[in-house]
């Protein structure tokens, strides 16, 4: 395993989530790579202290799974309006009330990750914020694709 490139990928992922969180002024941002039935947090910024070391979570019903399953971005101004998602344990635990996520695809167009911002209050995401999200999701694509390919071969995480 090339631990240097894996460490570099996590450092880059954290950088993208930090940039997204700062640009949007959101409480939390994640870069989740889909590997089987789990999500590897290639980047995370704004997690509560008790979750800061977490790099893997199950891929269960919720925002990121929706992006993976549909291959489309998901923008939710008020989570309380979304049946099924509002009561998701992670949403409740983190106090998430708004979500904006953009997919990252592999060369064939299959979603392999999502870059997302979340907030602890309802908010209308502006077109400028969504453009920033889309651009950063595009920019992190090569790092994500390389990491996802290694993870699928079992040589990452």
From TrEMBL:
State the organism named in the record: Nocardioides lianchengensis
Q: Which domain of life is it from?
A: Bacteria
InterPro entries membership? GAF-like_dom_sf (IPR029016)
Q: What is this protein called?
A: GAF domain-containing protein
């Amino acid at each position: 395993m090339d631990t240097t490139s894996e460490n570099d990928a996590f450092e880059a992922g954290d950088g993208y989530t930090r940039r997204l969180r700062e640009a949007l002024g959101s409480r939390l941002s994640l870069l989740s790579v889909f590997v089987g039935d789990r999500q590897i947090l290639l980047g995370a910024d704004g997690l509560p202290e008790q979750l800061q070391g977490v790099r893997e979570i199950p891929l269960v019903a919720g925002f990121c799974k929706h992006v993976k399953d549909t291959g489309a971005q998901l923008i939710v101004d008020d989570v309380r309006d979304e049946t099924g998602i509002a009561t998701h344990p992670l949403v409740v635990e983190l106090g998430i009330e708004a979500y904006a996520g953009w997919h990252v695809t592999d060369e064939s167009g299959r979603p392999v990750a999502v870059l997302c911002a979340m907030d602890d209050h309802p908010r209308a995401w502006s077109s400028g914020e969504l453009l920033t999200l889309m651009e950063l999701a595009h920019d992190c694509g090569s790092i994500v694709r390389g990491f996802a390919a290694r993870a699928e071969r079992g040589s990452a995480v």
